Amino acid sequence: MMTTLSESLIAKRNKLLDKFSGYGSCAVAFSGGVDSAVAAKAAELALGDSAVVVTGKSDALAEGELEQARELAELIGVRHVVVETNELADANYVLNGPDRCYHCKSNLYDKLREVAADLGVTVLVNGANVDDLSDYRPGMFAAAENGVVSPLAECGFTKVEVRELAAQWNLPVAQKPATPCLSSRIAYGQEVSTDRLLMIDRAERFLRGLGFGELRVRYHGDDLARIEVCTAEIDQLCESEIRKSILEEFGRLGFKYVTLDLAGFRSGNFQQLVPVEELKRYVRGSEASVS
Predict the structure, then answer these.
(1) How many angstroms from the chain centroid is the CA of residue 126?
(2) To the nearest whole percent, how much of the chain has pLDDT over 70?
(3) Are residues 19 and 112 located together in one domain of the fold?
(4) Is residue 248 in some structural domain?
(5) Alpha-carbon dihedral of residues 15, 78, 61, 266, nearest 10 degrees?
(6) Within this chain, do residues 155 and 243 fall inside the same structural domain, yes or no?
(7) Same domain as 118, residue 40
(8) In sequence order, what are the residues at sequence separation of 6 or more whose Cβ sits closer than 8 angstroms to the Cβ of residue 37?
(9) Quick one: average pLDDT of 93-107?
(10) 3-state DSSP call for residue 55?
């Protein structure tokens, strides 16, 4: 059922389409989440064949996400390019400091610029919205350095409004939870590796198979897993048979210790442990204020 937009959101939608039309052509960094999906749909509506979306494929991408991105791009009707990114070849990324996302996005945007140059595309686009600007987002520094624009943010879209527009455009990801890369589950200072990413991905898929919703499996030193599920599901996870099955499966995957976070699921958990001023000093050009 199509969602009815408010007058203010209709005005933002029209401004967004006008902005994309003004680009002439563009390449959108496309994860398949709701933000990049709305950016991709706007690009397709405004530019048609002059728009392309680009998805980075790496070990940090959860299983199934690439296929979902392909299907979504086909549904939108926009050209889709998949590029191999190789963050694990970057020592700064592997070290996993609070600037890890900066190095990840720098790698992705390098690939995006290459694709754009090959296709003759003029403008590089991401799906950042205004809510992202009030948080520590080292990837935004990488965007600025690479000339990547954020039309959703520039047109004043909040995350809630992005979801409303996605629903109005009948995009199936309108209510899709945030799905950050698997590396975000690894505690700062613990090196990122293919084996650790695979452990996390398989552990999270196992929990989803048991019926749990929004969740994270956080990796800490000594192969310790810290499980976050919604607080309403904590009692269910602690049921004897479920708890035993988790211990067995996580042990098989390579975790030596398995813990449950009684505070429940919290997005950006590791980032919240480091003061913003300390986070900012890790990123080149971070003298710019972070609200």
Answers:
(1) 11
(2) 90
(3) yes
(4) yes
(5) 30
(6) no
(7) yes
(8) 30, 72, 76, 127, 166, 171, 173
(9) 94
(10) strand
Q: Has residue 272 got a pLDDT over 70?
A: no
User: Residues 181-211: pLDDT tens digits?
Assistant: 999 999 999 999 999 999 999 999 999 999 9
- Which helix (H) or strand (E) segment is 85 a member of? none
Structural domain count, the chain: 2
Q: Give, as one character, the DSSP assignment of residue 169.
A: T
User: For the stretch 275-286, what's the b/e string if a residue is b when 16 or more beta carbons lie within 10 angstroms of its beta carbon?
Assistant: eeeebbebbeeb
CA distance 66 to 72: 10
Could you tell me the two tokens for 185?
A: 């589950």
Whether pLDDT at 124 is above 90 = yes
- pTM, whole model, 2 decimals? 0.90
Mark 249-273 as b/e (b = at least 16 C-beta within 10 Å).
Answer: bbeebebeebebbeeebeeebbbee
Residues 272, 279: Cα–Cα separation, whole Å: 10
CA distance 98 to 188: 6
